[in-house]
Amino acid sequence: MMKEINLEALVERQLRGAKLKYLKEPVVGATRPDFLVTTDRGDQIVIDVKDWKASAENTARAIHQAQRYKELSKAAAALIVTAIAAPVFAPGAAVVPVSLLLAHLSQVTTGLTRTKRSRTSVTTRSSPNKKIFASMPFKDRYDDTFLVAIQPAALALNAVADRFDYAGKSGDIVQQIKEMIKAAQVVVADLSGSRPNVCHEVGYAEALSRPVVQICSSPFTSLPFNLRNNKTICYSIGQASRLKTRLEKELAKVL
What we know:
Layout lengths: L6 H11 L3 E4 L2 E2 L6 E4 L5 E7 L5 H18 L3 E6 L5 E3 L2 E5 L3 H14 L9 E2 L4 E6 L7 H14 L2 E4 L10 H11 L2 E5 L5 H12 L4 E5 L8 H4 L3 E3 L5 H12 L4
Parallel strand pairs: 4-5, 5-7, 9-10, 9-11, 11-12, 12-13
Antiparallel strand pairs: 1-3, 2-8, 3-4, 6-7
Helix pairs in contact: 2-4, 4-8
């Protein structure tokens, strides 16, 4: 992870310097990327920033997220910008290093201009003020839990969900997480695997009197007894759409 550079700020400087039309942290369809770029032709490209170490696992994870952002936003294309050196491409989605961001945006824009497809209408709005903090494991298998279930459920209730995902903001990680919990009206805690960081964040949220909605995809027997006795939404990996429906109903009670 790049510790000395705020990757998200670097991306914004490049967009601004290139005089591109963009929005920061907009709601786009059923997701909220870091940026939305609109081309001169009117095509829209979503961009999200991940300050991840270079590895085959992180590259595969990033391209999966880019595809999800495209599906959920219904934008013309989606990019994940990382510190990873080599770009990776999929239909309508890509993972690119920050050094190649503007070059790739130019290529995408040219390709969209040449195609005869009609532009898809993309719904955008400002990010809601109500915040939900998603406390969950930092593993690729839980990405759809956030992208397909937690975030769309939050947006449906005029709230926005955040998780600490190494998005390129430098500074003390623990302090940033504490500040995100303080700013949230509700915490959604994924207790799958009984991760110590999630249990700690639940305790911190409860100390601040924040409502906590628990979800879990692993056996209850692995949970600490004080969390095992709380109401918990059980879900299965691969069924994020079902979880979204149940989570939306539960969140509506506390938002």
